[in-house]
Amino acid sequence: MSREHIYLTHQQVDLLARSSGPNATLIRVLAYTGLRWGEVSGLRVGDVDLSRRRLSVSVNAVLVGGKVVIGTPKTHKRRVVPFPRFMVASLAELCAGRGDETARCCSPTDQAATSRPLPSERTRGSTKRSMAPASSG
Fold it and tell me: Phi first, then psi: what are they for 9, rounded to 5°?
């Protein structure tokens, strides 16, 4: 039996992003682009085109058995995804100081130094629980 999807309003996304502290941009990228966890984890500084407001999705980064595995996105095709104008400044700040164009840019702050991807399956339940207050409002 599949469960009905929950979609957040703009106000709920804003509340969730502000509540997530330094991961606010990451939350907004997920909410407003429709990228999957692994796709966001695989984003590199060079994949962010601030002038055109586009993200190039060509890799997927996931944890498998405690190791980062880089592969193709679910569709096995590269795609370009637009992002809203209001995210330009925060994405520019997120990418600044991350090194060269191959450095990952959207890792959560607690893992940014090691460029590791987003939480593995075992932590997603707690992530969903932490989003519950925003999705219920």
Answer: -80, 170
